[in-house]
TrEMBL record:
One of its GO terms (cellular component) is plasma membrane. This is Monosaccharide ABC transporter membrane protein, CUT2 family. The lineage of its organism: Bacteria, Bacillati, Actinomycetota, Actinomycetes, Propionibacteriales. The chain crosses the membrane at residues 28-45, 57-76, 108-132, 138-157, 177-197, 229-248, 260-276, 283-301, 307-327. InterPro entries: ABC_transp_permease. Residues 1-24 are annotated as: Disordered. It is a multi-pass membrane protein. GO terms for molecular function: transmembrane transporter activity. Its main location: membrane. PANTHER family: ABC TRANSPORTER PERMEASE PROTEIN YPHD-RELATED-RELATED (PTHR32196), RIBOSE IMPORT PERMEASE PROTEIN RBSC (PTHR32196:SF72). It holds the Pfam family BPD_transp_2. It is found in: Cell membrane.
Length: 337
């Protein structure tokens, strides 16, 4: 006869639940869509399928990919970051004034690049601190920080455009390796670093957890606020590097260097499968979304679609992507918001 204690032990011990493996249809959707769209444009336009055009697509995706890396971490937490234009503008002007230029005698080279990226990280940290201290929606605090960044950029601009003459920074956009610009390789490196942080660091795991169930994470004893600040700081550093990349492309620092990149990055992330509500997606998902957006834009130009229609087509794709991700979740939870 089995004793009650022994029976309890036998009941308590059971097979440990195994994580679900494999790739879901929703995860496979964006890569499949990328292949299909690329194939359609390749059939419709002989110029689209050339090696040179593929290189142009990769180069055009570089800056957006870096911005999207940063914003993906914020979206994984279920927050929205609209600070990219201001952060990029401030970093773009800063690096233009710190490397060899026509405004002053500075020639800090790589150190100037690091300072500009550090400025972006500082503005990102400000976004995070404002979020956790003011307890207001993230889109409001980050919009305010964007205005702060644009103000800093305008003060540094002082009405005279700084043109760079630094060979190292200028070479990022001009020099090529294996057919791709250095900027493209930098963007690939950022995607790899972002994926490693997301996959193997506590910051990446907690970003997912905050987006999935912040209350549960807090009740388990984790201090959520520092990780939120860290995520916004990381995002700001990506934006700062993107501002430096734009300066390399233009050979000049512009206050509006980051104009439009916030919404373009959110679009790319959502199209790639990163949810606005947090807890799903990631850097690789968003990288696929960047390629989808750039391939679509390039393909529409190649087949002669009017620029006035291109924005509408991209908007429809964003709506379809959001609907495909959100509708199954609503049906499962039986909640309408």
């Amino acid at each position: 006869m089995t004793s009650p204690a022994k029976a309890d032990d036998e009941v308590a011990v059971g097979p440990r639940p195994q994580p679900r493996r494999g790739v879901s249809l929703r995860d496979a959707g964006p890569p499949i869509a990328l292949v299909v769209i690329f194939g359609i444009f390749a059939v419709l336009s002989s110029d689209f399928r050339t090696v040179g055009n593929v290189q142009n697509i990769m180069d055009a995706a570089a800056v957006l990919a870096v911005v999207t890396c940063g914003i993906t971490f914020v979206l994984m937490m279920g927050s929205i970051d609209l600070s990219a234009p201001g952060v990029m503008g401030a970093s773009a002007i800063a690096v233009a004034l710190l490397v060899a230029n026509n405004r002053n005698g500075n020639d800090l080279g790589l150190l100037g690049v690091l300072v500009a990226v550090g400025l972006g990280a500082a503005l990102g940290c400000l976004s995070g601190l404002a979020l956790v201290s003011l307890k207001v929606p993230s889109f409001m605090t980050t919009l305010g920080v964007s205005a702060v960044g644009l103000g800093i950029a305008t003060l540094m601009f002082s009405g005279v455009q700084p043109n760079i003459s630094d060979e190292m920074l200028h070479g990022w956009a001009v020099n090529r390796f294996l057919g791709l610009a250095y900027l493209t390789w930098i963007a690939m490196g950022c995607v790899l670093v972002g994926w490693l942080i997301q996959r193997y660091s506590r910051l990446g795991r907690y970003a997912y957890a905050i987006g999935g169930a912040e209350e549960v994470l807090a009740l388990s004893g984790v201090k959520v606020a520092p990780f939120k600040v860290a995520v916004f700081t990381l995002a700001g550093s990506f934006y700062g590097l993107a501002g430096v990349m734009v300066t390399s492309q233009l050979s000049a620092g512009l206050v509006q260097a980051g104009k439009g990149y916030d919404f373009a990055a959110i679009t790319a992330a959502v199209v790639g499968g990163t949810l606005l509500t947090g807890g799903r997606g990631g850097v690789l998902h968003s990288a696929v979304g960047v390629l989808l957006v750039i391939v679509l834009t390039n393909g529409l130009v190649q087949i002669g679609v009017s620029p006035y229609w291109q924005g509408g087509v991209q908007g429809l794709i964003v709506v379809a992507a959001v609907s495909a991700a959100v509708i199954p979740q609503r049906r499962r939870n039986q909640v309408t918001k």
